[in-house]
Structures are given as structure tokens and as C-alpha cells.
């Protein structure tokens, strides 16, 4: 009986890498980001270098000069011109992971020395006012209203709220308020705010 034998390979095909990338995280969102990044990369290779991405990567494998980093700088500039700056760092990180699967390793020190990454200005998020929240609740269906009120009172993000199950809710209700906050909050500021709000409520009760 013959057995299938594999040969040693230094690279993965694009399809193999996408499948491996998905199996690691089981996140369809991350997989879609990867596919979108590779499409942008293909477009960049075609428009800027007038060549197929696979051929360009084949030329860069084993190249010991700074050609790879000039190539990556051109890619970053290309994404900036395409108004992709808010997602640029994430897309660049995703591309680096893919290039590694193609036998092209990128040194973090060389990235710092040879590549200029743009400063991403984070927009300050303005929280909803009470009037906005009331308007949102007034026009929401009962199940949505229950979800929004839960998020509002607990400080959870919407993804965390949708993750909850009935069994998890029962466990949550059996805990004291501080332990409840720790179940849905991984950040100290959120927990600190919760504790301060509890202290304010306690002081108001003592004064009344």
C-alpha cells in the first residue's frame, strides 16, 4: 500500500495561507481583511510596478539589499494615496504575515530604520447624550431596547453583549456588583468608573 509523501517547501500557496490564517483564529472577519489586503497588494503591484505580485515576490526572495524595504515603502505610500490611512498599520501587519509565508522575512528593526509609517490621528469619539439615547430607545423594538439598556447600564460593548447566554446571565446575577463589572470589563478605567459610580450612589444614600 502506497502512502502519500510530502516534499519540503519553503513557501505556501496563497490559498493554503488563507486557510491556515483562518484556522488559527476561526474569525471570518480577519479572513476577509486578509483577502482584501491581498487584493490591494495585487492592485499595487500591477499599477505601480506593472507586474504580477507573484513575480515581484519571487525577485525579492533572498535579496539582501534594501529593495524589499523600498518596495514596502511604495506600498505604504500607495495605501496612503488610496485614503486607507486609518487601516494602514493593520493592513501592513497583515501583509507582513503573508510575506513571511512566502519566504520573505521582514526585520522589525529594519522597518523602524528604513520605512516611514504615517502618524494616524485618532478621532475623539463623542459619547451619546441622554437625549440621543432616549431617542434611540423610543424607536427600538423591545428586544433591541433590552440590549441597549443592558449595554448602557453595564458598560459592555455590543459584541460582548451579544456573546451572553442565559447560563452566563444567571452566573452574573449571583455575583456582587464589583465582580459583575470584572466579568464584562477588561479595562481598569471602566472598572474604576463603575466603582466611583457605586461610591457616589452610596454617599447619596447616606446623605438622604
Sheet/helix structural class: mainly alpha
Spell out the helices and strands N to C: HHHHHHHHHHHH
Number of domains: 2
Task: Report the average pLDDT across residues.
Answer: 78
Number of helices: 12
Strand percentage: under 5%
Explain this structure to me?
By secondary structure, the protein is mainly α. The chain folds into two domains: 14-114, no CATH class; 130-207, no CATH class. The chain has helices at 14-25, 28-48, 53-60, 67-81, 88-101, 108-114, 130-138, 142-154, 158-163, 166-173, 177-184, 188-207. The longest helix is centred in the N-terminal third of the chain and has 21 residues, at 28-48.
Topology of helices and strands:
Layout: H1 14-25, H2 28-48, H3 53-60, H4 67-81, H5 88-101, H6 108-114, H7 130-138, H8 142-154, H9 158-163, H10 166-173, H11 177-184, H12 188-207
Summarize the structure.
This protein is mainly alpha-helical and 208 residues long. It contains twelve helices and no strands.
What key attributes describe this structure?
mainly alpha, elongated, 2 domains, single chain, 208 residues
